[in-house]
Amino acid sequence: MANIKVMNRVTKQELEQLYLTELKSTREIAIKYSCDKTTILDLLRKYKIPVRNKGGGGKKHVLFIEINGVQVESKECTGCKMVKPLTEYDIGTKGAGGRQPKCRLCRRSYYSENKIAILKKARAYYYKNKSQITLKRSLNYYTNKDRLLAIRREEYYLNREERQQKARKYYAFRKSIVTAKERLKRKLNPEKYRAKERERYPRRKEQRKHYHKTYYQNNQLAIKLNVKRRKTKVRELPFQLTVQNWLDIQERFGQECALSPHRKDLTMEHFIPVSWGHGGTYRGNVYPVHCRINRSKSATNPFVWAERSDVKNLIDLQKWNRLVMILAQENNLKVDEFRRFVDWCESNKRTVEQIKSDPRTSLEIWKSSSPYILNNDDIIEDF
After folding, report:
1. Are residue 86 and residue 40 in the same domain, yes or no?
2. How far are the Cα atoms of 18, 46, 139 from residue 1, in angstroms, in the given order?
3. Handedness of CA 15, 20, 24, 26 (dihedral sign)
4. Whether residue 232 is found in the same domain as residue 94
């Protein structure tokens, strides 16, 4: 039976007003009169008030409020109890007006407070019903493909900058994982990707042409270094040169050829040719030189090459001596030691297989096989 004290406080008219007109739930009414829900249900039966369909207070009615002189559809949020326009609610079938019962702010607040529990529950449900969910999503996608793609496209262009910023941030943190996944996809589906490229190429031909031209103009030095990196890595030799390193080297030689007065048509030259299987691309083995001088030297021993009569007309001997001194210092060697090191590299050329079998640098191998041991910049002769 209903609590007599509550009955004395709640009349039939008040209960009908709260329950049928204002659509308050039995729980809300019980809280108002400081009693339990069962007492309110007993009162409903006693007053012969028809019980509403299951669902507590039922859906809130859509109201019209005036905003800036315009009548706007709105409803009361079941969370904060404030009347807000329908645009403040997410789309859903649970509430009136085809919107969620709670406004976005309330839903966001609830999610932030219960994030871990919600994710845990969602994850458990997903793995329990994974096959059914996957099938349902696939059917929904292929049934409504055009409509869904149009919605996604529209959403993307409305939030393009934000999407691109998020994508760049995601890629920066997961670059290696994303790259590995993409490579695996291409490896498993080569024909699919080739077909896509063939389809896209005619549509984006001019765009790609403009992009490549602009990229080359803005990144010429980086592109040239990438070519050098590839050639060096093919021979399994070390590549330890950044764009800034190369700019510093050029600045050291006054933005001109290291062996002549030329300031144009400069190329990167390896003092110890990489074709010998020694050296590599690093500060102590590269320098800027005119393209004609580069072609003349080719894979010759630089000290032998510099003594040729035809070469003496091409290079400045003072600059040559300065270059040798600089490279010797970069390798922590004296000039005569540096020459012996270069001669040793020529006499002990290595294949790619030999380089792979011994990962040490050429300088380390030479020092270990040389009768000279460096100690505090002094040379101690063992033999």
Report:
1. no
2. 21, 9, 53
3. positive
4. no
**Residue 361 belongs to a domain:** yes
Please check whether residues 26 and 89 belong to one and the same domain.
no
pLDDT in tens, 262-314: 988 888 899 999 889 998 889 899 999 999 998 888 888 999 999 888 888 88
Tokens for 370, please give them.
Answer: 């040389």
The pTM for the full model equals 0.49
Q: Is residue 177 part of a domain?
A: no
Give the N- to C-terminal CA distance of the chain in Å, as an integer. 114
**Left (φ > 0), alpha (ψ -120 to 50) or beta: where does 376 sit?**
left
Amino acid at residue number 79: G
Residues 6 or more apart in contact with residue 361 via CB below 8 angstroms = 238, 280
Query: 71 lies in which domain range?
Result: 63-113
Q: Give the distance from CA 180 to its chain's centroid.
A: 12
Question: Smallest Cα–Cα separation from 102: which of 86, 125, 114, 118?
Answer: 86
